[in-house]
Amino acid sequence: MHRPAWRVHTFVVPAPGVPLRTRTPLSAVTLAALLVLTACGGGGQSSSEKSADATPVKGGNLTFAISVDSGCIDPQQVGNNDALNIGRQLVDSLTVQDLDGKIQPWLAQTWEVSPDAKTFTFHLREGATFSDGTPVDSAAVKANLDGIVALGAKASLGSTYLQGYTGTQTPDAQTAVVTFAQPSAQFLQATSTMSLGLLSVPTTTADPATRCDGSTLVGSGPFTVGSYANGSKTVLKKRTGYDWAPTGAKHQGEAYLDTITYEVVPEASVRTGSLQSKQIDATTGIASQDLPQFDGNGFWTQRRANPGIPYNFFPNESRPIFSDIRVRQAFSKAVDRKTLASILNPGDVAVSSALSASTPLASDDSKDLALDVAGANELLDEAGWVKGADGVRAKDGKKLTVTVTFWQPTTAVLELVQQQERAVGIDLQLKQGTTAETTALQNSGDYDVLFYNLTRSDPDVLRTIFSTETRNVNHRAHSQVDDLLTQQAATTDTAQRAQLVAQASKLLVEEAHSIPLIELSTVIAANEDVHDLQFEGSSRLWFYDAWKQA
């Protein structure tokens, strides 16, 4: 049985203006107790198992707790997972990606891709409309793609998917021909994401701020914006007359739920208590140590690994410390990834490459990511960094102190890595800020190390982050890895592309441009009255088939 599937994600960034935190080393048990990720957890009864013999019920409200409000619910502008989970319900996409990574029809019934991967011709289904009644036609496709390019950096994900976009031709109402200046093999998968989801033509030119607060946000999806209160809640309403669900949906016609209420609940302990007391119906924000209590006992849990780039350290190679490959490699060799996985993220495998293992075409570079304390010490000795009486290395009177900046509630992961780095003489300082602060710092380039992940079910996510032609997160000079990333983006042959991706991934790890730490998974925890709340291909959530027992 297919389930709907998409991609997009989340990214995490550093933050300025926040004082460095000096921490007392914590035990692994304490760290595990502190860890809160929408990423870890266990098995439990899945929604599909629960509802296999149940008859869906129409109506009702489902209350879902999210951990953060990024101040925007426009799917074309946001990059945060919670916001993307909201945005997915508001827009449909040209295609849909199933859980096996295959691209399937949605608003586009068929398509052709030119041999050079520069031209994509989409043949649209008839009858689909936006919630204002206007048609989802080729003119709307053009307006959306042009509009995303015009948003520029505000479209943090979509703008990267449209790099090299030259325009869209509309030979008739049901045909859209999208062209690029250079090959863009990743674009077909990008059309399945909510970041390229379709909004009404007037919305594409509306004030971005009014799109963020939902007041001018008119989509093509099964739900519409009821209300949005920044920092508090978002209410979505079922759209009357919706009848163009994607390939893989469990039903056709309107959504079952009347409304979805997203409550902002920042504290993990409060989310846990709210689910226990059934003040909320479901969430993906339960701390790992609390998940077992929701396996049965009137609840169910379900997990899925997130594809894309796992939680990573991204060293800024314009900094003198990280311009030395030996220091970067030592920084990576000091990390005990098996311990991170077994203690902090039970149920997940240890990270094995620059890509998450669930990403299509991901390779296995685990040998290059093995713990090697002796090797780390040897590299640092060779680079001239000498351990002092306090155990911290120094060179030319300067301590080997580096700062990692981040916004996510993942301090437990970083505190354990902080201890591992200290064992080889690296003084790792932690600086946490808001999403806005960390984004600004990332854009300015004023950081030592970034910590974040990016979810996308296509290996081109590597080019998005690392290429010197795109984000260039390392601030490094052009090298062989950039050529490989460009070549894979131009290759439609799956086997050839896999080889290029594997070579690029290995180089990124070997040269420690990418220092992956831990895989990310998403776990739904819900009460037993909730049925068919499902994952899509990016491990984000799909509420179209969801319903509640009366």
UniProtKB/TrEMBL annotation:
Its main location: other. Residues 102-461 form the Solute-binding protein family domain. InterPro entries: Peptide/Ni-bd, SBP_5, SBP_5_dom. The keyword Signal applies. One of its GO terms (cellular component) is periplasmic space. It is found in: Cell envelope. GO terms for molecular function: peptide transmembrane transporter activity. GO terms for biological process: peptide transport. Keywords: Signal, Transport. SUPFAM superfamilies: Periplasmic binding protein-like II (SSF53850). It holds the Pfam family SBP_bac_5. It comes from the Bacteria. Belongs to the bacterial solute-binding protein 5 family. This is Peptide/nickel transport system substrate-binding protein. It comes from Kineococcus rhizosphaerae. The lineage of its organism: Bacteria, Bacillati, Actinomycetota, Actinomycetes, Kineosporiales.
